[in-house]
Design a protein that fits this description.
OB fold (Dihydrolipoamide Acetyltransferase, E2P), Chloramphenicol Acetyltransferase, 3 domains, 9 helices, 20 strands
Length: 465
């Protein structure tokens, strides 16, 4: 969206999704004086659903930034002004940068009259209050490549250094830091001892797990960012609430406040499922190029159970209950600092192999921050693989406004009594949170029993396609 004025073309915040009414400016990718190609991303947007990039609708020069980083603006509001190529406004916008263009080129600058952000001199702490607050991901990357973080100017909120800044510094040959300077900044010696996050997380020993048999890799370590200074001489640190975390908090509070939660749990014998997956996973990986996880089998079992009990696939609408025809499974995917729920659309029309490929694609996009708004919309029921981090019992909060949230817990070998004999079986719990306005214990109990039957019905002859 754009609107022409004497100063240039106003770039407006578009209607990125039907339910979207506002977005927060995460980071500006361009600065005043920069040349911009049509459709080139100019800033990052943080929405209630997912992060996205705002492309320029015109070609020209960025004249003025209206919406600052961290500011929430409504749909249709002006975020910046761009002087289109060939216009009088564009000529005026480029005049100041021409005077120092030679200097910037000699210094290796890539922008109009600007040096690369990654090698610029650090901003004053007063202007960059988050300048010296490094995430573990940034610390790890800097330590691996010997980059001195004190020599990098951050482009994140409050001057914070992001992974992109470090990668940019590595790419442009920033001199390696001395051995002593590679250490992660710690409080002054006089401060009380405080647990710190290791700079190189890859060197942290990972104990061998005896549970969570369906895990193919260790869960990601949360990205916790802390201040480096003590507060009021007390042994505590401050963690900023990011826009994404604030959105999660708002939605969780809304869900708990408006939905009368209830829950029920069932245990499932997945011994045959474990044998089936072990039999076909290597060939599937070789043929399809993705991992065949237990979650694909779980989703298939859940989808088939919803076909028998469609009320599970519904939402509350005050004076009516809306039952959705399409079964769109929302997957709870944990990233370093948040939980995102990308959606497998029309999951009832996919086989096990198709579900496995969808799970792999959406999980990769979620952890890489590449999800589009369409990827996280339209979910009708949520399934959460809480067993991926060893959980054996969870009470999930319902993903508003859905009617249910189902967790699949860790697969654990346990002694089980079968026909008065004790046998070692692979067992897993499944916990269902339900909206008690829509669902009752009887229907949910029958639904879980059907999911159990479907999971225990897998055999070595089960087809993936």
């Amino acid at each position: 969206m754009n609107r022409s004025t004497k100063a240039g073309t106003e770039i407006l915040l578009p209607q990125l999704a039907e339910s979207l009414v506002s977005a927060t400016i995460g980071k500006w990718l361009k600065q005043p004086g920069d040349k911009i190609e049509e459709y080139e991303p100019i800033c990052e947007l943080i929405t209630d659903k997912v992060n996205a990039e705002l492309p320029s609708t015109v070609e020209g020069t960025l004249v003025e930034i209206i919406a600052q980083e961290g500011e929430t603006v409504p749909v249709g509001a002006v975020v910046c002004i761009v002087a289109e190529t060939g216009s009088a406004a564009a000529e005026r916008a480029t005049e100041p940068s021409r005077a120092d263009g030679a200097d910037s080129s000699q210094a290796g600058g890539t922008g109009v009259g600007r040096a690369p952000a990654s090698v610029a001199q650090p901003a004053a702490d007063a202007d960059a209050p988050m300048r010296h607050r490094y995430s573990p991901a940034v610390q790890q990357l800097a330590a691996q490549h010997g980059v001195d973080l004190t020599r990098i100017a951050g482009t994140g909120l409050g001057g914070r250094i992001t992974r992109k800044d470090v990668l940019h510094a590595i790419e442009h040959g920033v001199p390696a830091a001395p051995a002593a300077s590679q250490a992660v900044p710690v409080p002054a010696p006089s401060a009380p001892a405080v647990p710190t996050v290791p700079a190189d997380l890859s060197k942290v020993p990972v104990p061998v797990r005896s549970t969570g048999l369906h895990l193919s890799e260790s869960p990601p370590i949360p990205n916790v960012e802390v201040e480096g200074q003590r507060r009021d001489d007390r042994n505590e640190y401050i963690i900023d609430v990011t826009p994404i975390r604030n959105t999660i908090a708002t939605r969780m509070r809304q869900s708990v406040a408006e939905i009368p939660h209830a829950w029920t749990m069932i245990e499932v014998d997945v011994t045959n499922l474990v044998l089936l997956r072990n039999k076909v996973k290597d060939e599937f990986k070789k043929q399809e190029g993705v991992n065949l996880t237990y979650l694909a089998f779980v989703l298939k079992a859940v989808v088939n159970a919803i076909k028998d009990y469609p009320i599970m696939n519904s939402v509350w609408a005050v004076d009516k209950i809306i039952v959705k025809r399409d079964i769109n499974i929302a997957l709870a995917v944990g990233t370093e600092d948040s939980v995102i729920t990308p959606v497998i659309k029309k999951a009832d029309q996919k086989n096990i192999a198709g579900l496995a490929k969808e799970i792999d694609e959406l999980s990769r996009k979620a952890r890489a921050g590449k999800l589009m708004l369409d990827d996280v919309q339209g979910g009708t029921i949520t399934v959460n693989n809480t067993g991926s981090f060893g959980s054996i019992l969870s009470y999930p909060i319902i993903n508003y406004p859905q009617a249910a949230n189902l967790t699949f817990e860790s697969i654990v070998k346990r002694p089980v009594v079968i026909q008065d004999m004790i046998a070692v079986r692979s067992m897993a719990n499944m916990c269902l949170s339900l909206d008690h306005r829509i669902l009752d214990g009887v229907i949910c109990g029958r639904f879980l029993q059907r999911v159990k039957e479907n999971l225990e019905g897998y055999t070595l002859d089960t087809k993936l396609y």
